[in-house]
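A protein record pairs a chain with a discrete description of its three-dimensional fold. The following entry can be read in just this way.
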Amino acid sequence: MARAASAQAPKTETAPSRGTAAVLGQHLARFRVGLPATQPRVAVPKATPERALATAIGRAAQASCQMPVYPAQAQMTHATLAELGEILPERGLILVVEGPLGALGVVTLCPAMLASVIEMQSLGRLTRQPPRERRATRTDASICADFVNLSLAELAAELSALTPGAAHPVFRFASFVEDPRPLELMLDDIAYRCLRLDMKVGQGGMRDAAMLIFLPDTDAAVARPGECTPGQAAPGAAVPGHVASVPAAGRSLAEAVRAAPVSVNAVLCRRKITLRELRALQAGSVLGLPHDAMATVRLETPSGLEVARGKLGALHGNRAIRIAARAGAKGDAGRLLDVGMEGAASGTACPADRTKGATSDEMSLLADPPLADVDQPDPFRTAFLDSADGSDNAAPAPPLNFMID
């Protein structure tokens, strides 16, 4: 019985199925011919702007504060300036970012994202407590500035790799905005691109967060009514919603003039000094200024023409001038327009009249016109001018001083 059972045991083994035999036969045939075995294809995800956004923010969070980011949903849409107030998160951190040529955009962090960045930079981890509801402050903006700058730089790099021919400028943190209402006045009414990333941050995705990036759309501009761009048959034949690039040559003369750079000098005051005083100036020397020098700053063109007056101060950590009055606002507009006629009489204000018939040497001397108030009395040296001995130490220094660097 035992022998019979052992003899019948091999007959109970199951033969390989037809499908398995076919696969084994294909591999055996390829091996005999010498062809390499086929490898399974790996599905490579398609590169999209949404994936570029998630990658950029994830890299920036890891580089700036070692915070893990798990993207949940990324979306990119075209928006207008009027829609900005509707998409901003409540009680979020609102930052104005600036790009090349003065282009402005907005970056906002939701309260959870703001608290996460601060906790990772201060504690090195996220707490289990939910973020406390509060208004974002300027200190929060300073703490998150590095993370925002890295995110924008990584985003520009990812989008440039995605579309090599398109221009993707790098934006950087410019200022903090506490109230979103002035944004409609600060930003230009142009086409924008809105990028939003909903994510989970922290170890294991312990907190839900969101980040919004609102930047000018440099790749496309909405065709204006009545304008015909290259590639369009007629203004009325434009397809609704069509996006076409607007070349620089298609701009009007007024737009080109408005975009022209203008140099303006801020002048605190002017004073006359002797050659001895000029040669004695060095690092650490102190120049006396009048009491109202900060409140009577003049904005002048390089030729010395006064444009406006204002008060010197500070705004967001930078030097700033608050315009108090524009030149010509009190009836002296004719003086500004007729400055060439006055220069013709005095020989100092009209470059065209002064250079007429001049030689090359004289032209080099007349390249920079003299100051308009050079012949006026100097308020700093009245005591010196009135003194009989003419000593250099006759006039005491005013209380407001400037140190030469």
In short: Residues 221-250, 330-356, 360-370, 382-405 have pLDDT under 50 and may be disordered. The chain is about 30% helix and 20% strand. The longest helix spans residues 138-162. Residues 295 and 311 are 4 Å apart (CA to CA).
